[in-house]
Design brief:
Chains A, B, C, D: Keywords: Metal-binding, Oxidoreductase, Zinc. Four copies of one chain form a homotetramer. The first copy, chain A, is an alpha/beta fold and 331 residues long. Helix content of chain A is 24%, strand content 27%. The complex binds NADP nicotinamide-adenine-dinucleotide phosphate (4 copies) and zinc ion (4 copies).
Amino acid sequence: MRAAVIHEPGKVSVETVPDPTPGPRDVVVGVAACGICGTDLHIADGEFAPSLPIIPGHEFAGEVVEIGSDVTEVRVGDKVAVDPSLFCGECHFCKLGRGNLCDNWAAIGVSKAGGAAEFALAPVKNLSVLPEGVRLEDAALIEPLSCVVRGFDVLSARVGQHILIYGAGTMGLLNLQMAVRTGAASVSVVDTNAGRLATATKLGATAVATSAAELDRPLGWEIVIDCTGVVAAIEDGFSRTRKGGTFLQFGVSNEDAVAKFSPFRIYNQEITIVGSMAVLHSYPRAAELFAAGFVDADTIITDRLPLEQYPAALDAFRGGKGLKTQVLPRG
Amino acid sequence: MRAAVIHEPGKVSVETVPDPTPGPRDVVVGVAACGICGTDLHIADGEFAPSLPIIPGHEFAGEVVEIGSDVTEVRVGDKVAVDPSLFCGECHFCKLGRGNLCDNWAAIGVSKAGGAAEFALAPVKNLSVLPEGVRLEDAALIEPLSCVVRGFDVLSARVGQHILIYGAGTMGLLNLQMAVRTGAASVSVVDTNAGRLATATKLGATAVATSAAELDRPLGWEIVIDCTGVVAAIEDGFSRTRKGGTFLQFGVSNEDAVAKFSPFRIYNQEITIVGSMAVLHSYPRAAELFAAGFVDADTIITDRLPLEQYPAALDAFRGGKGLKTQVLPRG
Amino acid sequence: MRAAVIHEPGKVSVETVPDPTPGPRDVVVGVAACGICGTDLHIADGEFAPSLPIIPGHEFAGEVVEIGSDVTEVRVGDKVAVDPSLFCGECHFCKLGRGNLCDNWAAIGVSKAGGAAEFALAPVKNLSVLPEGVRLEDAALIEPLSCVVRGFDVLSARVGQHILIYGAGTMGLLNLQMAVRTGAASVSVVDTNAGRLATATKLGATAVATSAAELDRPLGWEIVIDCTGVVAAIEDGFSRTRKGGTFLQFGVSNEDAVAKFSPFRIYNQEITIVGSMAVLHSYPRAAELFAAGFVDADTIITDRLPLEQYPAALDAFRGGKGLKTQVLPRG
Amino acid sequence: MRAAVIHEPGKVSVETVPDPTPGPRDVVVGVAACGICGTDLHIADGEFAPSLPIIPGHEFAGEVVEIGSDVTEVRVGDKVAVDPSLFCGECHFCKLGRGNLCDNWAAIGVSKAGGAAEFALAPVKNLSVLPEGVRLEDAALIEPLSCVVRGFDVLSARVGQHILIYGAGTMGLLNLQMAVRTGAASVSVVDTNAGRLATATKLGATAVATSAAELDRPLGWEIVIDCTGVVAAIEDGFSRTRKGGTFLQFGVSNEDAVAKFSPFRIYNQEITIVGSMAVLHSYPRAAELFAAGFVDADTIITDRLPLEQYPAALDAFRGGKGLKTQVLPRG
Ligand SMILES: NC(=O)c1ccc[n+]([C@@H]2O[C@H](COP(=O)([O-])OP(=O)(O)OC[C@H]3O[C@@H](n4cnc5c(N)ncnc54)[C@H](OP(=O)(O)O)[C@@H]3O)[C@@H](O)[C@H]2O)c1
Ligand SMILES: NC(=O)c1ccc[n+]([C@@H]2O[C@H](COP(=O)([O-])OP(=O)(O)OC[C@H]3O[C@@H](n4cnc5c(N)ncnc54)[C@H](OP(=O)(O)O)[C@@H]3O)[C@@H](O)[C@H]2O)c1
Ligand SMILES: NC(=O)c1ccc[n+]([C@@H]2O[C@H](COP(=O)([O-])OP(=O)(O)OC[C@H]3O[C@@H](n4cnc5c(N)ncnc54)[C@H](OP(=O)(O)O)[C@@H]3O)[C@@H](O)[C@H]2O)c1
Ligand SMILES: NC(=O)c1ccc[n+]([C@@H]2O[C@H](COP(=O)([O-])OP(=O)(O)OC[C@H]3O[C@@H](n4cnc5c(N)ncnc54)[C@H](OP(=O)(O)O)[C@@H]3O)[C@@H](O)[C@H]2O)c1
Ligand SMILES: [Zn+2]
Ligand SMILES: [Zn+2]
Ligand SMILES: [Zn+2]
Ligand SMILES: [Zn+2]
């Protein structure tokens, strides 16, 4: 089959590799679309170190083309989306039910061959079967949506609160769509990149601005979500979290980034800071919400390239003009 | 002013009574609309015993027409909705933050003169100021909505779950509207009264039926909400709560009603049963959600009568043909 | 090795069977002690149907005597306790992090050979390593304790509440010991079997009685835990749950048992009913609490017999005179 | 009566002032003991600005000596402890059930005359009646204990976790006593002041050290509680919070203190930071726990002076040699 392969940092090509063979409980998925996200860039740039070479791609959906000998849950032809998580199931955190903190964290497209290929292998338990009407290419968004669902699980917010989101990239906009559909009284979005604010408005933002200072809410927001990973946004967001409110660190900062906060405010105003990391028990629900029409895929997916142009797709994503970039292995 | 007065069980009239005079922290509200609910019927029928005579009406909104000497929070002309709760603030439960379980529970329209009148008195802290655009007559729905918000606080449900609601009366339909806007993967509604199902569909129900057996979900629903108070519905609903799921008792049964359940299932399937009683910390958020357009008032409010026809309005409500019945003291 | 074997309902013997051979990630445990509980009786009596014959025993601890080829986490000689849970990891509930509701629920001593034998096999991930000082025979209590920890996770009670426990058998007394060490303001115990109340007092109960009516608490208890499975106790306990309180169904009723409750009270008093089923993410913490001295094993373990007397041990347990009965395969 | 009076920053005296007169729902308490804490120092030093002059003292207990005309809940002679909180009940946060974040926060001994006097006035709802056996002087510890109960409410920790506390002053030691009685697997205490560690050990600490680096727990603690307010401790504590764990900011830093944290860790390890501010719905439960013997008062209360020596008591507390300093208005 054809597949994108990252051989070493900076060296990515599309080439012919052997087709995958399913183990007894594995399924071979014919990939309809595979999204690109920051993690792929980190792997391609060598900042994140799985053992190379690797076929990248952890956001994908497709059709079942072959099943392992002990698979009864799906059939050839089923439309499926794939949870890339490969928790060990044996470490302290897996035993505590917090597999996303697994001491041996691994994932399809990160530690094992992923979806930037004609075919990809996945354990059957990682599949969510999709109903007939779903457009498979769009379903590659279920993975990022499942991160957002995890974030909202962590927040476990009451209805009727005001939410402020920093960042109107793919993840900020998916958080926005979740927020407007889960009982927020209002959802405001801040992005320094003014070009993205119109999209936020289109997707239901109550107010948008290039700086939160422009938004008229001196008492702050009950919930603030950082979807930038940028320290300036994090510190600004923390300062705008209302008394009694919660700040969610969803964006991924550099490992050595340092943010400042006021411990007096944490105490005196009972501010809560929480973090949300990838996918936990959230993928099947994200698949259901996606199937129920939660996500405006046409707005979020801005670039679709053939698999053969995977290196160009990486560059397009790096350029940051559009939102979600996908490769379509079927053409 | 003109006001409806319940003198004794079965004896309701509309008459001229003295205008209310505000205490220092009170506000006089010119009532735009006052909704009728089961509690009013209970009072009029003598099943529920405040000291009579009383001006009923605990679901109302209007305009500020006079303020007490120490009121600074609102001004004459402000549009307001009124939380009828009058918790004592001093009992065991009030001190625990559970005022809706107050040992000295009282409410405007139940223990003190209510909104079925041209003017009604309320402590300023019970008011939620509404933004300009809001239609005041519709805002009388904020009170029932605030009960629904309490129910959803109690549920504190994760997103992406399947919800089944019994009852498509006003409360079932408000629960439905809340559920479809708070991240449910699907919301089904059952009502033995087939005539009400079309309204449920219009308001966003995924599926409707006169019996849950017709809905194709053998494994059950993660969340089941009873909005009937009828034992047959409660027992059916409990049996259809999915393994690990939650059953919410929102409907008000007779005090001596008895329902059966399987303690083995509670244990073995870790089913949770919770209850939700009136309003707790939920009124201001309901007001915000209402102002944000959460409720389709045109569909829910089916009957609007002048205040002078209060007895007829009670009868209309008792007849149960429409959904929410209101009296409009302004004409 | 020698092992107890249940061949068919009513037919239990101790015999010589082949020693277990570990798979790559398995460990062979030399069993120090194996407790007997109601589940063993159900298997022996044919009320619960794993495929027979089976070596029973799901409450055990011992020493590592052999490790599989890929085991690095423990060494021969380590003292370990064994979580019997064998969740499939692939079903809907396992993916939701609720493995104890696994659609393919299985357990060591129930679906696979258990601890009523000289040696028992367990996946390494099921082991909790114990510190040096621990008495291994007592450590067989970690399994029932881990059920209690699950119950307390479900309760997630605030400190400073009053707790009432029905049943002073092994499980009631372990719940008692947990309650007195987790911030209850008081813990009362009711058992119709007066002979067991002195033990409850010894283990820290604030008050004991053969009927809750004798305990002077007319407003009820914030938390009521049923550890009997008996409908009379459940209904009594529900009626004594205080306004705003929680009833935990820990005891296992017959599958067809029916209990009555007042749906009006659930609503009006916001009573919560929850259930707790076996072990979920709780075994390692139970092992830590046990090692920290949470349990008075000398009081709870009343009967210790050699493995050869397994049938007699079953009968002793059935007789119900003592509390926990164990067999000691080492002599 | 005799009372301590803070006239202006730096000017504290004990003098004769008029006896308090109860309003209809007030109670006059004959103060048995009044504890001194950092807040009193802040008031005396002018860093915290209620309108002066004021009688300080918000930690006190005593006997009812007079009741207002509408008081029926207590009788002259009752032993009581006093919740100093005076939430307005009308602001946004009070209406949300978060009175400790009240926009008009006030308290006995801070905004109104307090307990450093022979007699003190309190609304009847602020009283917790104590059982006969309780030593009234010790009961002045209920107020700081009620802050600790609030902290544990915020934590809502599962049982069986490892806890690390920074600071072995009165508050650290009360947090320690709560932790050892609420199901921690271990509780370690760090204080730079080595002289206080022996007390921590006496009160049940599993391990103590002058630096957390000495404690052998490289993976960190599931729960870390700062009871110092010192940035160095906060930053060290944050760094030792285990993956998936929670850091509680209980200590009060300077308003302009700044602490650094890693937003990457918050995200990647899903670390939670929470704060706990004073008393919320926790006083009555603290009173119950105190009456049940939760606190070793003899160890915590190190200095007892007559009321006449209030200025000396402030200085003793400032000196920081002992732990809790009290004045005893009865002699
Ligand atoms: N928690 C999880 O499980 C999870 C999962 C996936 C992704 N993530 C993370 O989520 C974050 C967002 O992902 P994405 O794909 O949406 O990234 P993105 O496309 O780069 O979007 C981030 C947006 O934030 C804007 N921004 C930068 N600094 C800002 C500031 N100070 N104030 C306001 N806006 C600012 C950026 O503007 P410019 O373009 O002008 O810089 C950009 O538009 C990333 O950190 C990603 O790693 C987290
Ligand atoms: N928890 C709270 O805070 C709160 C607040 C307000 C109201 N409530 C309660 O909520 C409930 C609903 O109020 P509402 O105003 O919506 O009442 P409603 O208009 O009477 O609606 C109840 C609906 O349930 C239907 N129903 C009756 N038995 C049923 C069954 N076995 N299965 C399915 N549907 C069945 C009724 O049909 P028929 O017309 O054919 O009988 C009716 O359409 C009441 O019990 C009310 O007291 C609770
Ligand atoms: N949730 C879980 O994960 C889990 C785990 C293990 C066990 N369990 C269950 O927990 C329950 C207790 O187990 P156990 O080993 O402690 O059982 P046990 O030894 O039989 O103890 C039950 C006690 O309850 C007493 N009792 C019976 N009816 C009562 C009533 N109406 N009021 C008060 N006390 C009454 C019994 O007295 P008599 O002896 O006079 O009948 C007996 O002393 C069982 O149902 C068991 O299956 C649950
Ligand atoms: N959240 C609330 O509701 C609430 C209520 C009451 C009090 N508080 C706060 O709780 C904190 C503790 O009160 P307290 O009365 O116990 O105070 P305290 O007596 O001053 O105790 C603090 C202890 O922390 C030690 N310490 C200082 N820096 C340290 C470091 N880097 N590492 C380890 N230990 C260090 C101090 O040692 P040295 O003596 O050598 O400095 C002292 O022994 C205060 O900030 C107080 O304001 C909070
Ligand atoms: Zn793991
Ligand atoms: Zn009350
Ligand atoms: Zn499973
Ligand atoms: Zn307030």
